[in-house]
Write a structure and sequence with these properties.
The protein is mostly beta strands. The protein has no helices and 11 strands. The protein has strands at 3-7, 10-12, 18-25, 34-39, 46-51, 58-60, 68-73, 78-83, 92-98, 101-102, 106-110. The termini are far apart.
């Protein structure tokens, strides 16, 4: 079955950087568009961004554009989210997902 496992979260100070990884298994990784979303308790889930199968096409939410970068390594079946210039409002649980399959999520906390 499809499995998505996020890692790399944690506590970081405002202005800092963090890279999330998502290792995937159970499906033909290289042909799918992959996504990162985030959610804060009590708020709607937000699609952070997506990356096409070849890695050359990415889209981002306006709230993260210019600060976050999504990449993928099809050989390693891994999706990445590079987050720079982090703000307290980036604090959330971050999820990778493909189709209807979601990882368990990883917490990112931006605080001094």
């Amino acid at each position: 079955q499809v499995q998505l496992v996020e890692s790399g979260g944690g506590l970081v100070e405002p202005g800092g950087s963090l890279t999330l990884s998502c290792v995937a298994s159970g499906f033909h990784f290289s042909v799918y568009t992959l996504n990162w979303s985030r959610q804060v308790p009590g708020k709607e889930r937000e699609l952070v961004g997506s990356i096409g199968s070849g890695g050359g096409r990415t889209t981002y939410a306006e709230s993260v554009k210019g600060r976050f970068t999504i990449t993928r390594d099809n050989a390693k079946r891994t999706l990445y989210l590079q987050m720079n210039y982090l703000k307290p409002e980036d604090t959330a649980m971050y999820y990778c997902h493909v189709g209807g399959a979601w990882g368990r999520g990883i917490q990112v906390t931006v605080s001094s």
